[in-house]
């Protein structure tokens, strides 16, 4: 089955991003295809490379990056939600005259159209949120 | 069934709005998805449940909150061909509201009918 995933909550604050990660991992292990993981609302914070969780805790951002590298996952952070919350890649930082960028490896920033497209293309769009 | 569906292209998208318009960003960002999604020519419906019915209430004044009152945007949805708005009857009644208190024309449906509407969708985005 072809799956699209929507993650609506930030890491550590809420179970949603953990559940989404475990679901995606399990689905891939069962041979399903995950065509896109879209991060919206505070979910965009799953894509900041500047998180430094305690060493005895899971590293949620790194975990997403590694899963993306392993399975060629398309991890998309919503640009409008990202701008509100201070998430940016190099080109966005340059465009807005910011002195830093913080998007983690394996993530890309794009528009909400990518979420709708995932809904159209996937057999199921699974939403993880509050 | 819409003409697009007859061509086998469009999917039925339902946006479920469960939260009050202010106090969290979910309602505003849900509406942003609806507006972007409208360009994709899918079969779009909106549902308002629980405190979500407050999103459509007339006479919203957000000056004291220092946030934008986005309720007028619901009136623009018609221009995007988004005209199917379902409001949960029980949620309206529990809050002392009627369809006349809302900024746009809606179809008021009971929870059982709402469940049927949800059952008929291809994609449900819940905010």
What can you see in these coordinates?
The complex is a heterodimer of chains A (130) and B (127). Chain A has 130 residues and is α/β, with parallel strands linked by helices. Chain A has one domain (2-128): 3-Layer(aba) Sandwich (Hypothetical Protein Ychn, Chain: A). Chain A is built from 5 helices and 5 strands; from the N terminus they run βαβαβααβαβ. The longest helix of chain A has 14 residues, at 16-29. Chain A is globular, with a radius of gyration of 14 Å. With 127 residues, chain B is of the alpha/beta class. Chain B has a single domain, classed as Hypothetical Protein Ychn, Chain: A (3-Layer(aba) Sandwich), CATH 3.40.1260. Chain B has 5 helices and 5 strands. Chain B has helices at 3-6, 26-37, 72-76, 89-94, 111-119, and strands spanning 12-17, 43-48, 84-88, 107-109, 123-126. Chain B has a 5-stranded parallel beta sheet with strand order 4-3-2-1-5. In chain B, helix 2 (26-37) links the parallel strand 1 and strand 2 (43-48). Chain B starts with a helix and ends with a strand. Classes of the chains: A alpha/beta (130), B alpha/beta (127). The interface between A and B is medium-sized, with 18 and 18 residues.
Write out key terms for the chains shown.
heterodimer, A: about 130 residues, alpha/beta, Hypothetical Protein Ychn, Chain: A, 5-stranded parallel beta sheet, 5 helices, about 35% helix, B: about 130 residues, 5 strands, disordered N terminus
